[in-house]
Amino acid sequence: MKINKILISQPKPTTDKSPYYDIAQKYDVEVVFRPFIKVEGLTSKEFRQQKISILDYTAIIFTARTAIDHFFNLCKSLRVTIPDTMKYFCTTESISLYLQKYIVYRKRKIHHGNKSNKLVDLVPLLTKYNEKYLFPVSDVHKEDESFLEKHNIDITKAIMYRTVSNDFTPDEPFDYDMLVFFSPAGIASLMKNFPEFKQENIKIACFGPTTAKAAKEAGLRLDIEAPTPEMPSMTGALDMYLKNINKKK
């Protein structure tokens, strides 16, 4: 069966240079970007239930731009003024540069890792400065920080935002030939929005083993699983799949 319309459960790219657009043109398919999930910040009341006082900490750790946005938005709603003495530790330079949206960028108080977007790469810096660290995270944060205890790093995780279902409206069309998922939360949102969902001829593509596992546990048939050595990206997997079904333009 020819694929005519594909739902990519991610936000729409900010430029026209996305490989998904190349695939749409190459195989004459309509590609729609429509996330099944969205991130929302906790309210000040919800945050207070954690009994965490932001000003008790001397440094903040960020592993994502999303965390930066929700941290400063929450501070605003709590009417907390961050002192100029606060230090910031980011897992990558690009994340650290994003801080300029909220504060004056000074190298003496902003530090970043140099290898990858992993907390473990910050250990040398965290132990060097020996601050009292606050670590803003989401409600689905699952990274193992047990290694920090071995280095006696004083760190407290604070949930500041959460992942929720991005519900479909009653009049929103759902006429897709293929659905592409990137997280277990996306699968959960599909089943929440359409509890009587019947896959039938709809193709399902999943990126990552945990997403594939969630799809199978939900009783879905997987037509594409990525990454693999032959298909390291989702766009590469789509290209290979459509090559056998849709004719190139």
Provide structural commentary:
The protein contains nine helices and eleven strands. It has helices at 19-27, 44-48, 65-78, 93-98, 123-129, 146-150, 184-193, 209-217, 234-243, and strands at residues 5-8, 30-33, 37-41, 59-62, 87-90, 110-112, 133-138, 155-165, 178-181, 203-207, 224-226. It has two domains: 5-36 and 166-243, Rossmann fold (3-Layer(aba) Sandwich), CATH 3.40.50; 40-163, Rossmann fold (3-Layer(aba) Sandwich), CATH 3.40.50. It has 249 residues and is of the alpha/beta class. Helix content is 30%, strand content 21%. The model has no long low-confidence stretch (mean pLDDT 92). Helix 4 (93-98) links the parallel strand 5 (87-90) and strand 6. Helix 1 packs parallel to helix 9 and helix 7 runs parallel beside helix 8 (209-217). The strands form two sheets. The protein has a six-stranded mixed sheet. The chain has a five-stranded parallel sheet with strand order 2-1-9-10-11, with helices on both faces.
Mean pLDDT, all residues: 92
The low-confidence runs, each spanning 5 or more residues with pLDDT under 50, are: none
Beta-strand percent range: 15-25%
Structural class: alpha/beta
Quantity of strands, as a count: 11
The percent range for helix content is 25-40%
Oligomer: single chain
The fold-level CATH name of the largest domain is Rossmann fold
Q: Strand order, biggest sheet?
A: 3-8-7-4-5-6
End-to-end CA span: 17 Å
Shape: elongated
The domain tally reads 2
Number of helices: 9
For this structure, what is the CATH class of the largest domain?
Answer: Alpha Beta
Helix-strand pattern, N to C?
A: EHEEHEHEHEHEHEEHEHEH
Biggest pleated-sheet summary: 6 strands, mixed
CATH architectural label of the largest domain = 3-Layer(aba) Sandwich
What radius of gyration results from the CA coordinates? Answer: 21 Å
